[in-house]
Amino acid sequence: MEKTTENISQSQSAHDDTESGHPEDNFTGATGVLFERAMAQTRMAVCLTDPNQPDNPIIFANRAFLMLTGYDHDEVIGKNCRFLQGPDTDEDSLNLIRKAIREEEVLVVEVLNYRKDGTKFWNALHLGPIYDGDTGELLYFFGSQWNVSDVHAARADEHQAKLLARELSHRMKNMFSVIGSIVSLTGRQEGAKQVTDKINGRIRALGNAHENALSSASAGPADISEIVTAVLSPYAAGSEDVFIMRGEKIGLSTSTISLVGLVLHELATNATKYGALSADEGKVTLDWREEDGHLILDWKETGGPKIDHVPEEAGVGSGIMSTLLKSARGELGLDWQEDGLKATLHMPVMS
To answer: Fewer Cβ within 10 Å of end Cβ, the chain: N or C?
Structure first.
């Protein structure tokens, strides 16, 4: 519990038959016996304080409370719970506790406390008033404590992972921007603007894929749906109906993200120039699934110009895709159907 001048207290002021004293000094008869047995057996740390005494001292603390804090029974009885506070205990949490006691409210709050040996622990404190059933008079404050240090550590790790992901995303975005600038400057100097535009398009696709993966994932593989959306959104031309996406959640490794992003970029670029995305009514349907550790992604174009012949030679983009996919044990099959291109990507999920 905490460093407030009003806090809930624990154990009681008698000697000890149980680990925490004789609760029947305050709770008499059968009720006292049941209370004593229940409090002795529960694994939840529990204490009672008496707000009718000066400084709201602890009058009862069970065994679990003593084990949690490291104090002996005689060291806690008669003290206000503020002895559990220390230099890093948050004042805002203490103000909430003070307010709850002052206004006789129920409160659940997490507060940093200290054990007898000085070690810190995060305490999930639940406190509330106990009234006389006949007169309505305030008799005690009840406090239960639960060590949630592991929960706080997990939250901190997740927060750090997200901060790292954002920083990596920012740096990667800058890196792709620098690479693009170098390519553009070189292209202007060498008179090869068309080539540099294509290269920059591929760089942007890779940047979009990785930036989205890093900014959205706290840890672990990135979901393919996020990658698909990030890479293809520039080609939607403001229409949400251009791409129809269907598939299960599949986590992709970093290397797989690069290849998927590049393949989607090349397919979308081709569709914009010659296929479904070059027509007002054109659409692209994407379906993906995982089979035996492999990603299967189907790309199907409809509503574009009629295809009356199959390209005789693969373009530069197709050559790049084929080379990279082969090195990753993947492949891209192209089926030039009359109503549009159908492509199937097949590669390991964790290449």
So the answer is: C
Residues forming a β-bridge with 345: 297, 332
Q: Is residue 48 part of a domain?
A: yes
* Rounded distance between C-alpha atoms, residue 249 and residue 126, angstroms: 39
Whether residue 116 sits in one domain with residue 51: yes
To the nearest 5 percent, what fractions of the chain are helix, strand and coil? 45, 25, 30
- Domain extent, residue 308, equals 221-351
Q: Looking at the structure, do residues 246 and 337 belong to the same domain, yes or no?
A: yes
List pLDDT tens digits, range 291-301: 998 999 999 99
What is the C-alpha to C-alpha distance for residues 302 and 217, in angstroms, rounded to an integer?
33
- Which tokens in the block code for residue 300? 């199907």
- Domain ends where: 124, 147, 170? 147
Beta pairing, strands 331-337 & 243-247: unpaired
d(C-alpha 131, C-alpha 156), whole Å: 39
Task: Report phi then psi at 144, rounded to 5.
Answer: -115, 145
Q: What is the DSSP string of 52-107?
A: TSTT--EEEE-HHHHHHH---HHHHTTS-GGGG--TT--HHHHHHHHHHHHTT--E
